Amino acid sequence: MNVKRIFGTILTILGIIGLIYAGWGFVQQSAGTRGLVVAAIIGVIFFVSGISLVRNTKDEA
């Protein structure tokens, strides 16, 4: 399997986890706002870069 595609999948999953954590924190108002904003920004960056890696990697047999 292609290493770029695996890395893109891992980045996408980490981005989803970061976005869920930030969303849950905003709803529960449990952590500091600054930490949640940082988690959300990092989550978006990971998610977008992971999706672009998976999308732009060509399948080679």
| Helix-strand sequence | HH
- Give the oligomeric state of the chains in this entry, treating copies of one chain as homo and distinct chains as hetero: single chain
Round the mean pLDDT to the nearest integer and report it: 87
Content of β-strand: under 5%
Helix % is over 70%
Distance between termini? 9 Å
Please tally the helical runs, counting DSSP H or I stretches of 4 or more residues: 2
Overall shape: elongated
Structural class: mainly alpha
- Taking pLDDT < 50 over at least 5 consecutive residues as the criterion, the unreliable ranges are none
Tell me the Rg in angstroms: 14 Å
Keywords: Membrane, Transmembrane, Transmembrane helix
Transmembrane segments: 6-24, 36-54
Structure description:
The chain is mostly helical and 61 residues long. The chain has one domain. The chain is 82% helix and 0% strand. It has 2 helices and no strands. It has helices spanning 3-28, 33-56. It is elongated, with a radius of gyration of 14 Å.
